[in-house]
Q: What sequence folds into this?
């Protein structure tokens, strides 16, 4: 205890417990607040203002998407043969440097809207991912998006993506995201009661930026933690383990730290860090002047950045470009085989590693063996849920049930686990038990399409066709864009 207190005092910063909100800082830090309000981060999320109307037709999806105003609010609508579905836009995500996405609120849950604004072309187009599939208004805004893009979200712990009302204590990224809770400092105005990243050891300061600027190939939350538990000045590894796969290609979406670490400047200088080049309070910085603090010009021209840190298209997201932060004259080479922990912390155990390989496996099927190997040694509710799902897929329903129940009892109460347990019980010929589980799941995740569908199936299994019919009606009311179920309902209810 004493050692820790001394260590904290030596850093000259004690992270407080109580938040004050950015507005509380303004009276004493007017200049910083005014400059920061103009930056991208200071405008990372906002209320929805007046937007230009738009219309996007998707031939492959056979859908029309529109943006329009009604009664002073902005809406998006999706329509196709036989249905139309509209939702008011609740929040704008992104300052618009590259683009703006929109959130809609359904009950206590936030979902992405199908159209985004692309700044480079000044046009409405499908949100990233919607080119391939019709997610309607049902693509949950994962707590991850919200944690990176907003000031102080209020997620309900241990729930399938629920938010308190109001869902944000602070909408845009604010002072306390980087300086820690500041209520005590705002009362005392004492330097020692607020975190100043410039006074932290370099690696600890970088972790403040890393939580949002190093997406990684996998991110695994520590047991019982949510992203918003992170406190500046403390180790990021207390909350999340970020993993990188070996890469040769130069993809730099959300990988600013990895690129910086591979830069000759970072490796061979003592002090280079994010804030060597960026003042997070300022909207624009002269980066070429920064190069000049360590290098002499070599005669190829004054715009160092244009040649050594070029802007490149992201690829994954249309019309968007990011800066290559890998300052190096050498091409990339892949050295490792598996995932490597990116943020310093204790060596990850099997219970962390199986999740990491599970996430990275989507893009790298060669990780399957490492996933299995770690899963076999893992414990905790997420491991139970994963083994339960594997048993279900093998057709070992009786084996799956206790595993999935264990996962729920252990606190992993996500839609997929309820869905899997409901499925296993249904297949074991226990539709009543299955229904009870599915209903419990719907209380946690009321907008899960698979849970609603399973309820209807279970009623059919029980030969209760009236109940099946009303479950399908409820489904179509919530998810009218599902052509298959909409037509099925028409058939069974004998509508034209
Ligand atoms: C009542 C006035 C007051 C309020 C309100 C206030 N500050 Fe300060 N702040 C100060 C003063 C005065 C200093 C300089 C203290 C010193 O140098 O000893 C300071 C210093 C700081 C520093 C630099 C600390 C260092 O190590 O040098 C940071 C960072 C900071 N404030 C952030 C904030 C944030 C974030 C808020 C809002 C949560 C806030 N302040 C609210 C008065 C205030
Ligand atoms: C809570 C998450 C979060 C933290 C912490 C964070 N950033 Fe950001 N940062 C973002 C997001 C999101 C954007 C994009 C904002 C936009 O334009 O909508 C961004 C944008 C930026 C930009 C582009 C210019 C601008 O003002 O938007 C720079 C530079 C930047 N961040 C640097 C940093 C540095 C340096 C740190 C650490 C001191 C840091 N960020 C900490 C989330 C974060
Ligand atoms: C790990 C943190 C992180 C996650 C998770 C994340 N983002 Fe971002 N996002 C950023 C940062 C940081 C930027 C700024 C560009 C950059 O640094 O790569 C950004 C850029 C954007 C932009 C462009 C902003 C602008 O002003 O041009 C939009 C829109 C966006 N993200 C939406 C989303 C949505 C929607 C999700 C969830 C599906 C999401 N992001 C998930 C960190 C994140
Ligand atoms: C994205 C992260 C980030 C955000 C958001 C942020 N700061 Fe800072 N702040 C920093 C960093 C990094 C430093 C250290 C800069 C340096 O000295 O190199 C700093 C330094 C400071 C300082 C001391 C030095 C100075 O520039 O006066 C004050 C005071 C301060 N911040 C106040 C604020 C206030 C008030 C807000 C909200 C309006 C805010 N900061 C938002 C990252 C941030
Ligand atoms: C904190 C000091 C520092 C800053 C700031 C800095 N560099 Fe460097 N840079 C270095 C050091 C040290 C080396 C290694 C020199 C050596 O190997 O002799 C280096 C190496 C390089 C190299 C050679 C890369 C290679 O693969 O050999 C380039 C190119 C470069 N820097 C460009 C830049 C540019 C452009 C900027 C501004 C955006 C910049 N540097 C900012 C310290 C810095
Ligand atoms: C050697 C200088 C240098 C360092 C160190 C540096 N950056 Fe940058 N950064 C730049 C330049 C140059 C740009 C392009 C700025 C512009 O377009 O105005 C940029 C742009 C960005 C942007 C805007 C999006 C983009 O990619 O264009 C973000 C976000 C960002 N940096 C985050 C970071 C983070 C986080 C760190 C630390 C891991 C960091 N930077 C370290 C020079 C640097
Ligand atoms: C027109 C493109 C271009 C511009 C502008 C440019 N460089 Fe370079 N730079 C290069 C190339 C290409 C090399 C590779 C070595 C060579 O051919 O001389 C290089 C090499 C370097 C090196 C490593 C070798 C050395 O000479 O030490 C450093 C450091 C460097 N540049 C820094 C800078 C800085 C700082 C600026 C801005 C004042 C700058 N460069 C502007 C293209 C450019």
A:
């Amino acid at each position: 205890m004493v050692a820790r207190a001394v260590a904290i005092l030596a850093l000259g910063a004690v992270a407080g417990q109580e938040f004050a909100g950015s507005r509380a800082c303004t009276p004493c830090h007017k200049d910083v607040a005014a400059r920061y309000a103009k930056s991208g981060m200071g405008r990372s999320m906002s209320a929805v203002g007046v937007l230009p109307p738009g219309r996007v037709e998707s031939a492959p999806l056979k859908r029309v998407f529109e943006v329009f105003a009604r009664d002073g609010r902005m809406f998006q609508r999706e329509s196709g043969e036989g249905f139309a579905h509209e939702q008011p836009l609740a929040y704008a995500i992104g300052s618009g440097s590259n683009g703006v996405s929109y959130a809609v609120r359904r009950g206590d849950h936030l979902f992405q809207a199908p159209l985004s604004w692309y700044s480079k072309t000044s046009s409405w187009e499908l949100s990233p991912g919607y080119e391939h599939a019709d997610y309607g208004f049902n693509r949950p805004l994962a707590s991850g998006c919200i944690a990176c893009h907003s000031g102080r979200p209020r997620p309900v712990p241990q729930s399938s993506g629920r938010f308190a009302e109001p869902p944000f204590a602070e909408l845009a990224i604010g002072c306390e995201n980087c300086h820690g809770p500041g209520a005590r400092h705002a009362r005392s105005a004492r330097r020692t009661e607020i975190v100043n990243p410039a006074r932290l050891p370099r690696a600890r300061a970088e972790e403040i930026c890393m939580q949002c600027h190093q997406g990684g190939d996998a991110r695994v939350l520590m047991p019982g933690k949510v992203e918003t538990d992170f406190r500046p000045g403390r180790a990021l590894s207390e909350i999340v383990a970020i993993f990188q796969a070996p890469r040769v290609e130069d993809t730099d979406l959300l990988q600013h730290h990895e690129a910086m670490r591979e830069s000759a400047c970072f490796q061979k200088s003592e002090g280079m860090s994010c804030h060597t080049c960026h003042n997070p309070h300022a909207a624009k910085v002269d980066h070429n002047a920064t190069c000049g603090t360590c290098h002499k010009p070599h005669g190829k021209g004054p715009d160092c950045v244009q040649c050594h840190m070029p802007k490149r298209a992201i690829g994954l997201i249309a019309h968007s470009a990011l800066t290559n932060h890998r300052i190096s004259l050498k091409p990339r080479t892949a050295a490792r085989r598996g995932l490597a922990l990116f943020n310093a912390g204790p060596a990850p155990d099997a219970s962390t590693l199986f999740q990491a390989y599970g996430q990275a496996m989507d893009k790298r099927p060669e990780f399957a063996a490492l996933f299995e190997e770690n899963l076999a040694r893992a414990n905790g509710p997420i491991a139970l849920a994963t083994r339960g799902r594997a048993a279900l897929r093998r057709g070992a329903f009786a084996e799956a049930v206790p595993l999935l129940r264990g996962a729920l009892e252990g606190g992993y109460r996500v839609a997929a686990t309820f869905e899997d347990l409901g499925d296993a019980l249904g297949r074991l010929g226990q539709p009543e038990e299955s229904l009870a589980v599915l209903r419990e799941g719907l209380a946690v995740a009321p907008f899960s399409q698979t849970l609603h569908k399973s309820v209807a199936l279970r009623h059919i299994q029980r030969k209760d066709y009236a109940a099946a019919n009303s479950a399908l009606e409820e489904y179509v009311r919530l998810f009218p864009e599902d052509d298959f179920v909409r037509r099925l309902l028409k058939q069974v209810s004998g509508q034209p």
User: Anything to note?
Assistant: The chain has three domains: 45-169, 199-284+304-345, 379-492.
